Amino acid sequence: MPVPAMHRSLLFHKPYGVLTQFTRPPDSAARTLKDFIPVPNAYAVGRLDRDSEGLLLLTTDGKLQHRLSHPKFEHPKTYWVQVEGAPDDEALRRLTEGVVIQDWKTRPARVRLLDAEPALPPRDPPIRYRKSIPTAWIELTITEGRNRQVRRMTAAVGLPTLRLLRVAIGPLKLGDLQPGHWRDLTGAEIRDL
Length: 193
Fold this sequence. Notes:
2 domains, alpha+beta, globular, Alpha-Beta Plaits, single chain, 4 helices, 16% helix, nine-stranded mixed β-sheet
């Protein structure tokens, strides 16, 4: 009797500029997951835009992939967002209650202003710096994940996103995993999902 294949699930720190796919588009020099992840049949659970960084979960388990990526399960995803401008109480309240983007309203989010810039690896290329315009960092946790949602949410309250890093998916944390590196999930982490 054949032994069932064991599934693998991975945490990857996606660097800026990497596409969340394994196939390189025609006429493109963009890096893809294939440049970093040598695990066959692993698929990303959700996406991060090319210009976003941070925690990406990949798995060979289709059932787990569906359960973690389908909106009906409302898995929380936490981001650290560097915004242009100084968030006031009204902007933070609007993000917390949900904002209207085009023809839909986002679900309520957990939002807090970070006291200081988080200790992060430098981004290549670095964000633009303008001496006359302040920046701030907010932590934003959402339970949905529409296309460019976090960027659209901050823009809707007058705070354009400069840098966006996903730091958690549910109980999974990015921790000290460096850009371009990955690791297998532990048995305990898989059970927590």
